[in-house]
């Protein structure tokens, strides 16, 4: 179409011009400040983050830590105040309103905790899935119906397409919500507490579905969760604290005697250092050292040693 701009082509394309080794999601010194009346709330403070294509990442943190704000920025629902954010080679900060709307429609899928936020109550499961296909004008009615049937089968609800949300269980509703999120074949799935309203057995089934989609489709996923077991369900978990990434955990099987390996999953946690050399020390470490505000750091035998600095007039602690 003659009126299509270069940015339109970039956003609408499912194949981006990234180098093969480039991360699918890149946040570089990302800042987001909300203005509430005369006050400012800094939700993200120079956050640095990268997710590889096809990676399944959990995001955890206390309320107000910035994890949901991160998803909103990546989803194109809110614009960053400063810094760079790219998804699939698309610089979100450079997009105008029309391009952002197209990005949200074609490149990213959302699944929210509240089922009411995911589905239209007066439409059947199949009709809910058809909504984003109709908005996106993806093919004719027959092709849209085939796509709906395909997605219902993919989430294990091939025989429930004619049922409205009220006629489905909570787990079934979330399965439909996932199908709706996948309707336009997005490159990134964002899920904010997708199992928060489900019992543990149903939550397990939803995580198994998300993992199977990750494997079968190579779908990149970010999942915000308070589930303490999430590290065993995803490739890695990052913890957000005060608007920055604080630590990272990965699950692995625990090795026992000899060549025997246990099926028990354990997690290894490391602190994250950003591009400016900043890291967040765990509260337990700060309490143990009695650190408040200042610390000395020195390299000793290949390790960094942190100590509480001496106050004026105090003798330095013995080695």
Order the strands across the largest sheet as they lie in space: 6-7-8-3-9-10-11
The poorly predicted ranges are 1-10, 13-19
**Structural class of the secondary structure composition?**
alpha/beta
Question: What's the CATH topology label of the largest domain?
Answer: Rossmann fold
The outline comes out as elongated
Strand content: 25-35%
For the record, what is the CATH homologous superfamily label of the largest domain? Answer: P-loop containing nucleotide triphosphate hydrolases
Query: Roughly what percent helix?
Result: 25-40%
Give the SSE order as H and E letters: HEEEHEEHEHHHHEHEEEEHEE
> For the residues shown, what is the average pLDDT?
83
Number of helices: 9
Report the sheet with the most strands, covering strand number, pairing sense and barrel closure. Answer: 7 strands, mixed
Q: Terminal Cα separation, in Å?
A: 73 Å
Write structural notes for this entry.
- It is a single chain.
- This protein has 319 residues and is α/β, with parallel strands linked by helices.
- The chain has 3 domains: 18-107 and 186-199 and 213-279, 3-Layer(aba) Sandwich (Rossmann fold), CATH 3.40.50.300; 119-185, no CATH class; 281-319, no CATH class.
- The protein has 9 helices and 13 strands.
- It has helices at 6-12, 67-74, 97-106, 115-118, 125-135, 141-154, 170-182, 200-217, 283-289, and strands at residues 25-36, 39-51, 56-60, 82-87, 90-91, 108-112, 188-192, 220-224, 236-241, 244-255, 261-271, 296-300, 303-307.
- The strands form 3 sheets. It has a 7-stranded mixed sheet with strand order 6-7-8-3-9-10-11, with helices on both faces. It has a 4-stranded antiparallel sheet with strand order 2-1-4-5, covered by helices on one side. A two-stranded antiparallel ribbon has the order 12-13.
- α5 packs parallel to α7 (170-182).
- The radius of gyration is 23 Å and the shape is elongated.
